[in-house]
Design goal:
By secondary structure, the protein is mostly beta strands.
Length: 520
């Protein structure tokens, strides 16, 4: 019996021996770590005094398996981050760090130290580095697949040692007269210049510097650009200067007088580089110019139609010109209209500010609706004589002309403008018919005494009958110099204007009910 027990013990021991051999550490099969993908693969080093954080390198845990494929727990795995030049295939790696964790924060100095190990002194060439994770545990080591990084060494920016500033090209002529053109903004001139040249590190050849911007400035002459205004900012070598911006600067900022030449200077302010290397300089020369500005168009001024068969192109006597009207006196309203007789032939529009001169609203081109103010522009043409409605938009600079049917309109014998200034006598201040042909437009030149009421008011009456009254549109009481009356309106509303003594010119159109009352 004792021998049987010994035999069974030997058999049991023999059965256990293969299992122990299978768990022998020498038979472990490691699975290497995997480095997580990086968002960036290229890094530029800053200067020596700076050490910013670049990125975190993460990797998976190294795993160990038995020969049968079962996972085996291994304590104390150490991870070593190694780096080498990509072409070396880790024949001469450097140890970046050792850790038991699964990540390593990489700073600029980390990469700077690695580059310093491999690169030649003062080398400015980028280095392609290969990183891997060497894992050690259970008496075994295994390495991950590498990842590649490009590291650009820090290079000090070049120093600008000399600048050859731009030179402004002379303008011909040196005197420019600006003319109001509404929302249209014509180019007055183009300023050109050559590029500013930059010389780096005492080089005799210029080198590009980026960015470079040119600011065209204008100031009063002899002010040494103590208070300049900007006309344009550009990276190109030219700048267009337009009338409205230039006129606004002269009139609103410099206090120039409309119609009088004003002396100004222009120069370039040149900005270059960025960061610590940024700087400014100015052009090597200045341009002296004389600009004649215009006064902003007053939307309440009178506008007249004159022409070949209207007043034989007379420029000064507005009483012989056809008056234009507006629906109201809002300063935002730039639309003038004329409804009345028009002879066949050429005509133009004369604004009050241009009386006595050749400056008038003219056509930009034959057959086009666009208008400009010019002394030599193309005249408008009325093809057939008769009643027309003509519209002129002095802001958008457009016009139109259309036939008007006046066949059923009453031709009144008399028209009066009466009110507080006439003791409400409807026959005391008669108006004059403009002409036999233009028999629906009436004019009046009169003087009025001051009013003790604090205002003057009035209305228009035809043929002396209160059945033939035109009264102002309700809600538009105070509407001078322009407004629109309604014929036989039930509500009694007058035209109101100031109480002062004055000489008045009154025009009235009984076809449209439009009037204009100007103090002379």
């Amino acid at each position: 019996m004792k021998n049987i027990r010994i035999l069974l013990s030997v058999l049991c021991l023999s059965a256990l021996l293969p299992a122990c051999k299978e768990d022998d550490p020498e038979t472990f099969a490691p699975q290497p770590s995997v480095i997580a993908s990086l968002e960036e693969s290229s890094f530029e080093l800053p200067e020596e005094s700076e050490n910013p954080y670049f990125f975190r390198m993460n990797w998976t845990k190294t795993k160990f398996f038995s020969a049968s494929g079962e996972p085996v727990w291994v304590d104390g795995i150490e991870y070593e981050v190694q780096a080498d030049l990509s072409d070396n295939d880790f024949s001469a790696p450097v140890s970046v760090a050792k850790t038991s964790g699964l990540y390593l924060d990489i700073y600029a100095q980390t990469l700077r130290d690695i580059c310093g190990h491999y690169a030649e002194d003062e080398s400015e060439e980028p280095l392609v580095l290969s990183f891997r994770i060497k894992s050690t545990g259970g008496g075994m080591s295994v390495c991950s697949e590498p990842v590649l990084l490009t590291v650009v060494p820090y290079t000090a920016p070049p120093v600008i040692t000399d600048i050859e500033e731009s030179t402004l090209d002379e303008l011909q002529p040196d005197t420019y007269t600006l003319v109001y053109q509404g929302v249209k903004d014509p180019k007055v001139f183009t300023v050109t210049w050559n590029a500013t040249q930059f010389y780096l590190d005492d080089s005799s050849e210029p080198s590009p510097v980026s960015p470079v911007s040119y600011t065209l400035q204008i100031d009063r002459s002899n002010n040494d650009f103590a208070d300049p205004r900007t006309l344009a900012t550009t990276s190109s070598l030219s700048a267009d200067v337009h009338a409205n911006a230039l006129n606004s600067i002269l009139m609103n900022d410099f206090g120039a007088t409309a119609g009088h030449a004003y002396e100004v200077e222009m120069r370039l302010l040149i900005a270059y580089g960025e960061g610590e290397s940024a700087g400014e300089t100015v052009s090597s020369n200045r341009l002296t110019l004389y600009i004649v500005p215009f006064a902003d168009f007053d939307p309440l001024q009178a506008v007249y139609i004159y022409g070949q068969h209207i007043n034989d192109w007379g420029l000064s006597d507005f009483t012989a010109m056809y008056p234009m009207f507006k629906t109201d006196s809002e300063t935002s309203n730039y639309v003038y209209t004329y409804t009345g007789y028009m002879p066949q032939g050429a005509y133009k529009f004369m604004p009050e500010m241009s009386l006595g001169t050749d400056m008038a609203f003219c056509l930009v081109a034959d057959g086009a609706p666009d208008v400009e103010i010019s002394a030599t522009g193309i005249a408008f043409w009325n093809q057939t004589a008769g009643f027309k409605t003509i519209t002129l938009d002095t802001h958008n600079m457009t016009y139109s002309i259309a036939d008007y049917d006046a066949g059923s309109a009453t031709v009144w014998n008399t028209m009066c403008f009466f009110g507080t200034f006439s003791g409400w006598d409807p026959s005391r201040i008669p108006m004059t018919r403009f002409s036999d042909e233009n028999n629906h437009i009436w004019t009046l030149d009169t003087s009025i005494e001051p009013s003790d009421l604090g205002y003057h008011c009035g209305k228009f009456i035809a043929d002396g009958s209160y059945d033939n009254l035109w009264q102002n549109i309700l809600g538009k009481d105070w509407s001078t110099p322009y407004g629109t009356m309604i014929f036989r309106q039930e509500t009694d509303v007058n035209v109101y204007f100031g109480p002062e003594a004055a000489r008045l010119r009154v025009v009235f159109n009984d076809l449209t009910g439009q009037y204009a009352i100007f103090r002379k």
